[in-house]
Amino acid sequence: MDDPVPALPAGGPGVRRQRLLRRRSALRHHGPIRPAARIGPRAGAADLPRCGAQHCSSEHPLFQAAVAAGPGSPERAMFHFAAGSDDGAPPNNWQSVFGGTAWSRVNPGSETDREWYLHLFSPEQPDWNWRNPAVGNYFEGVLRFWFGKGVDGLRIDVAHALFKADGLPDAPTADPVVDGLRSNPKVSDQEEVHEVYRRWRRVADSYSPGRVLVGEVNLAPDRAARYTRPDEMHQAFAFAFVKLGWDAAAWAAAGTELEAAHQEHGAPPTWALENHDISRSVTRFGGGDRGVLRARAGLVAILGLPGGAYIYQGQELSLPDVDVPVHARVDPMWARGGVSRDGARVPPPWTTAPENAYGFSPPGAAEPWLPQPAFWGSRSVEAHRGNPHSALHLVTGALRLRTELLAEGIFAADDACSWQVREDGLLLCERGDQILLAVAMGDGPCPLPDGSVLLSSSPLTPGGFLPPDTAVWMRRHRR
């Protein structure tokens, strides 16, 4: 959205956003998955619009006003405008996540306006200046606008990178960005950001029922957990898992690190294996039939862990990455850095027939922004609903069982986890004192510990062993 707080003329942006909210409400009741577990202050499926507090669109009215107002104006103080050096270089050596300098001239060639503006991502995404109190006041209005419309909360984009180091000093290195914003300690995880989320938490808690704040915090677990202290956000995505391959030792190490952060700061992790920036798990775990088996097992595993769990659109359908033709790629990272995330962003299929973009679009709509492959119908919601062994049925069954176990007190949201890997490649996670999660990550079937199997991502062998690339939830027998 160009402007997260719309004007409200008849038929204008406000009306379109009301239609969007009504469509979200319809999807809650008719979409492929009805999440049954409580994710925050309210139960059931939740409307969590994405909040761009780190940057906005270059078409945003406030940025357009800043461009028009000129150097030194209050309008420009809402963003990071700064003069470059006399030799024409940008204000500092910061690099964009998408490649190249993080600065662009606002009026190239002008003799009177020689300022640059900061964009840690693309030039079309200027960064807000959170050291200006007016920005904080503006965003409190954004929160109150959307909370007043009835949304359940907000998913906060790049939540750790609102504040930049005071004075915008050079980074220790000007090397190309290879690990997101972690490459430059001057652009994220500044201590002042926590007061923003304390303020937002007070706003969220002032509504009845309270609203939930979920942060995209791409930091090491011990740093990310600080954003979910009791007076800040409710949840922050556990990024350690979205980057994992099919490696038992790596899973155990990441799980152990996240548990240590949980014990130190109190909030349990929020689990995810996929998002819009990462290769899909089917592809990341090897592709083909084996990638599908592993992706199913991975989903069962994270849904069995304590805390929140997030399923990326299409993950419940075992969608792989799509090899989008070069001419059709639209990701700005492709143009600036030679890396494309479009393969994980292709519109998901709803119907087996290709009409209306496999059911994604209404009749008569334009073609979607990315092309869908010819095999898309075989992975559609319609195809999955007709197969009782499909990934969609597996996930919906896991969500129902998760809810039942929480209601019975067998699962507790704040359960502790203990991770280990056996020599045969069996990953084990002890959840609380009753539940054991097991994932066979080796090449052969594994004998299971003592207990009753509650859920399995694939059938056990005739001898009761766990086949490779399979996950189970087990209830341990009491002694």
What does this entry look like structurally?
The chain is α/β, with parallel strands linked by helices. Helices cover 28% and strands 11% of the residues. It has helices at 13-30, 61-69, 133-148, 193-205, 221-224, 239-242, 248-265, 281-284, 288-303, 332-337, 355-358, 381-385, 391-408; strands spanning 50-51, 81-83, 103-105, 115-118, 153-156, 212-215, 235-236, 270-272, 308-310, 417-421, 426-431, 435-440, 452-456, 471-475. A 5-stranded antiparallel β-sheet has the order 10-11-12-14-13, covered by helices on one side. Strands 1-5-6-7 form a 4-stranded parallel β-sheet, covered by helices on one side. It is globular, with a radius of gyration of 24 Å. The chain starts with 12 loop residues before the first helix and ends with a strand.
Q: What structural category arises from helix and sheet content?
A: alpha/beta
The portion of residues assigned to helices is 25-40%
Count of individual helical segments:
13
The helix/strand series, from N terminus to C terminus, equals HEHEEEHEHEHEHHEHHEHHHHEEEEE
Count the E strands: 14
Low-confidence segments? 7-43
If you average the pLDDT, what whole number results?
89
Radius of gyration: 24 Å
Spatial separation of the terminal alpha carbons: 57 Å
Global outline = globular
Strand % is 5-15%
- What composes the largest sheet? 5 strands, antiparallel
Strand order of the largest sheet: 10-11-12-14-13
